[in-house]
Design brief:
This protein has about 230 residues and is of the alpha+beta class. It folds into two domains: about 150 residues, no CATH class; about 70 residues, Arc Repressor Mutant, subunit A (Orthogonal Bundle), CATH 1.10.10. The chain is built from nine helices and eight strands. Strands 4-5-3-2-6-7-1-8 form an eight-stranded antiparallel sheet. A hairpin with a 5-residue loop joins β2 and β3.
């Protein structure tokens, strides 16, 4: 079983015609937390959104032929909304591909670009099913594969055990090439990205590395306290 991460960008620049309307009023889709299919062809999607709730409501209320209903979580920051709507042809076709293969999607699905819209999807499944999913998706959108590796369910748990700041530091270090060989960035570079000092970056990285290394040691070795 494999885990694959890839970025999808629709050929027309957006998944659904509603997206540019939201952009125009300053509402951005940040992530998708769930997707459910309804027998009448509509879908129910829970989005995390950046923007003003009044602007979002005006857009949704202004498209009764498309939006069946919606509910906003008023006590959440960032804004979370559940929308039941009829998808456009492009989004409908991609969602159909989503249902046609025996793979599991890791939520949330992150939006990584706007105008054109791009989302990053992480999926787990048999190699043949994943290849089929990518092949069919490429008929409707561009696909950039970021990584493919054997699935290890403990990897995400270990990452989740880091603090939010440690996750931010680690992701920034990986993104900017700190762990590439040869190393492409320094503590000072990371400090500028993270708005802190270089010594703080070093402390974060040492603690992150110690925690992750300790988590993969066999129990007897871990218990012997080889690492002080």
């Amino acid at each position: 079983m494999l885990e694959i991460s890839y970025v999808i960008t629709p050929d027309r620049g957006h998944f659904d015609r509603a997206e540019p309307i939201l952009w125009d009023v300053g509402v951005r889709l940040e992530s998708i937390h769930s997707i459910e299919f309804v027998s009448d062809g509509s879908v129910v999607i829970i989005y995390e959104i950046d923007g003003a709730v009044d602007d979002l409501r005006r857009c949704l209320d202004g498209a009764p032929e498309k939006v069946v209903d919606y509910a906003v979580a008023h006590d959440r920051d960032p804004l979370v909304v559940q929308i039941r709507f009829h998808p456009d042809a492009t989004l409908g076709q991609l969602l159909s591909v989503h249902r046609s293969f025996g793979v599991s999607v890791e939520f949330p699905i992150q939006y990584v670009g706007q105008d054109p819209t791009s989302v990053e999807i992480v999926e787990v499944g048999p190699q043949e099913e994943l290849h089929g999913r990518i092949r069919e998706t490429r008929k409707r959108a561009s696909v950039h594969v970021q990584h493919v590796h054997p699935y290890d369910p403990t990897t995400r748990r270990r990452f989740a055990e880091l603090t939010e700041r440690q996750q931010e530091v680690l992701c920034t270090a990986v993104r900017t090439g700190y762990y590439r060989v040869p190393r492409e960035t320094t503590h000072e570079d990371l400090a500028r990205e993270l708005d802190c000092c270089a010594s703080t970056v070093g402390q974060h990285l040492r603690r992150i590395e110690a925690q992750l290394v300790a988590s993969i040691l066999p129990d007897p070795l871990h218990d012997s306290e080889v690492i002080p």
